[in-house]
């Protein structure tokens, strides 16, 4: 029925349960005595193996479990379609507590690796929240690349923990790039949004590609600048609704999740072609400064780096610390060397945030602690 356990993505104030079937059919979720269907415009979706069911966070949080239901449909006839028997899979669900410490694991730049990132995450011990911060596929080129998202999430959460996904620049590449949004949580198709989990409020940003749209590498296939302009307007709208966002009652921690660390000097460490949109990213940083962020989590550079507020590595007067937390080490061609992956785990208790490096090759290493 299902190729992997479902992903429970947090977007705004809802969960989006995303799953991949092994055959065509229709899907719905039963939770808290209610039924939530995978439908579009009054029609049950059946022609894609991917399904998405949205439901309010408070419904699933109160229930603590849900049932994922499926009926196969070999042929969608215009009249009298014949559905298979109802199949059900039950899952427990563990929402983030409203108070007390939580443990979050962040993976970025896994580039279609599965085993090493999973082992690194498991080294962190028990955790409450999975953050997938871009470039989880190497490219959106093969179905196996997109399935890497589902495979990692399935092994680590088993459909029972919330997940937040931020899109990375490699996710824009390949023939299946326009289908990536079927596999992740989105705000009506947009890959920038806010979320609220327990006492944590977060904003997810999408920088798009890491070079100008006109770069020969893209061959005219990207339109990231216009997306960034739309995203700027969205960030401004978040500030206009601060009392329902980061200033909402009971918010204890404010975080930002973005694959590319645009407000750090790492953008100037390489060739000039990677140091783009400085005026726009300066505006983003100015807007983020209004949100009283406790921390920003990034990937992209394949490094582990702690950039404190006010340091020389921070850009645009960012008033929040930035953690870059991914180090993939790929096997050399023609060898049997295992891949090694390092990410980060964050223990969050209000304004107290401890950051550990986690790895498939060694036990966790403390990187940063605030009190």
What does this structure look like?
This protein has 371 residues and is an alpha/beta fold. It has two domains: 7-92, Immunoglobulin-like, CATH 2.60.40; 102-369, 4-Layer Sandwich (Purple Acid Phosphatase, chain A, domain 2). It has five helices and 22 strands. The protein has helices spanning 57-63, 115-122, 143-157, 224-240, 278-289, and strands spanning 7-11, 14-20, 25-31, 34-37, 39-40, 43-44, 50-56, 65-72, 87-92, 102-107, 129-133, 162-166, 193-197, 200-205, 253-258, 295-298, 304-307, 322-325, 327-329, 340-349, 352-359, 365-369. The strands form four sheets. Strands 1, 2, 7, 10, 11, 12, 19, 20, 21 and 22 form a ten-stranded mixed sheet that branches. Strands 13-14-15-16-18-17 form a six-stranded mixed sheet, with helices on one face. Helix 4 packs parallel to helix 5 (278-289).
Sum this structure up briefly.
By secondary structure, the protein is of the alpha/beta class.
């Amino acid at each position: 029925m299902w190729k992997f356990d479902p992903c429970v993505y947090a977007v705004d104030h809802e969960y989006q349960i995303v799953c991949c079937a092994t055959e065509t059919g229709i899907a719905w979720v039963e939770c808290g005595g209610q039924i939530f269907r995978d439908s579009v415009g009054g029609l049950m979706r059946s022609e894609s193996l991917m399904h998405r069911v949205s439901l309010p966070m408070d419904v699933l949080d109160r229930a603590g479990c849900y049932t994922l239901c499926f009926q196969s449909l070999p042929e969608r006839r215009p009249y009298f379609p014949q559905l298979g028997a109802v199949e059900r899979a039950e899952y427990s669900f563990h929402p983030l507590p409203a108070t007390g410490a939580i443990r979050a694991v962040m993976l970025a730049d896994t580039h279609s690796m599965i085993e090493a990132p999973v082992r690194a995450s498991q080294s962190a011990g028990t955790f409450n929240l999975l953050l997938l911060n871009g470039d989880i596929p190497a490219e959106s080129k093969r179905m196996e690349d997109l399935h890497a998202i589902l495979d990692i999430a399935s092994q680590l959460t088993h459909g029972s923990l919330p997940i937040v996904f931020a899109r990375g620049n490699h996710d824009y590449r390949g023939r299946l790039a326009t289908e990536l949004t079927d596999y992740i949580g989105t705000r009506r198709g947009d890959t920038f949004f806010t979320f609220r989990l327990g006492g944590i409020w977060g904003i997810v940003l999408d920088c798009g590609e890491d070079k100008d749209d006109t770069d020969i590498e893209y061959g005219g296939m990207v339109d990231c600048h216009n997306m960034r302009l739309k995203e700027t307007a969205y960030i401004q709208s978040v500030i206009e609704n601060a009392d329902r966002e980061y200033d909402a009652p009971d918010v204890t921690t404010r975080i930002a999740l973005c694959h590319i660390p645009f407000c750090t000097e790492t953008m100037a460490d390489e060739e000039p072609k990677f140091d783009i949109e400085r005026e726009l990213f300066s505006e983003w940083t100015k807007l983020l400064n209004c949100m009283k962020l406790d921390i920003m989590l990034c990937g992209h550079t394949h490094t582990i780096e702690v950039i404190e507020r006010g340091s020389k590595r921070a850009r645009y007067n960012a008033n929040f610390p930035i953690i870059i937390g991914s180090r993939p080490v790929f096997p050399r061609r023609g060898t049997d060397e295992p891949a090694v992956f390092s990410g980060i785990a964050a223990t969050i208790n209000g304004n107290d945030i401890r950051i550990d490096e986690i790895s498939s090759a060694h036990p966790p290493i403390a990187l940063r602690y605030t009190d």
